[in-house]
């Protein structure tokens, strides 16, 4: 780098800073440090919540196994569930999503992430446990509804 002596020097320095340094505001960094000081308790709480959500989801999948199978997650807070072809013809699949949505529960169907429509993602780590229980109940009702109207395509 050369000597910055001309009238453009402050502009060049500012441009160099913006092109090389990416950082948060001082307030954001201070809050992040405070959070890091409490990381053990924050992570313990999150781990407990994830375990609880995963257990509730496992129990739901076990109770609806005539309709769905799933990929048990190794980590994270989201799983993929597949509507079984033996329980849902092609016309019944959209009925499942419509029935769930009518009751206020939306799940991401597989077309959104490059899979087939029978697959949906279910997040079990973010909602409160009462909200997750409600969503699972609604999804169970939607499964029953779609499967009971499984005639014709």
Describe the structure in your own words.
This protein is of the alpha+beta class and 153 residues long. It has a domain at 50-148: Aspartate Aminotransferase, domain 1 (Alpha-Beta Complex), CATH 3.90.1150.10. The protein is built from five helices and four strands. The protein has helices at 9-20, 26-37, 39-63, 92-102, 129-148, and strands at residues 68-71, 78-83, 108-109, 119-123. Strands 1-2-4-3 form a four-stranded antiparallel sheet, with no helix packed on it. The protein is elongated, with a radius of gyration of 24 Å. The model has no long low-confidence stretch (mean pLDDT 87).
Question: How does the SSE layout of this entry go?
Answer:
Blueprint: H1 9-20, H2 26-37, H3 39-63, E1 68-71, E2 78-83, H4 92-102, E3 108-109, E4 119-123, H5 129-148
Antiparallel strand pairs: 1-2, 2-4, 3-4
Task: Output the CATH class name of the domain at 50-148.
Answer: Alpha Beta
Radius of gyration: 24 Å
**Annotation, overall tally of beta strands:** 4
Distance between the termini: 70 Å
Helix count, per DSSP?
A: 5
CATH superfamily of the domain at 50-148: Aspartate Aminotransferase, domain 1
Strand residue percentage? 5-15%
**Mind describing the biggest β-sheet?**
4 strands, antiparallel
User: Poorly predicted ranges (pLDDT <50, ≥5 residues)?
Assistant: none
What is the H-and-E element order? HHHEEHEEH
CATH topology of the domain at 50-148: Aspartate Aminotransferase, domain 1
The strands making up the biggest β-sheet line up spatially as: 1-2-4-3
- The residue fraction in helices comes out at 40-55%
Question: Structural class given helices, strands, pairing?
Answer: alpha+beta
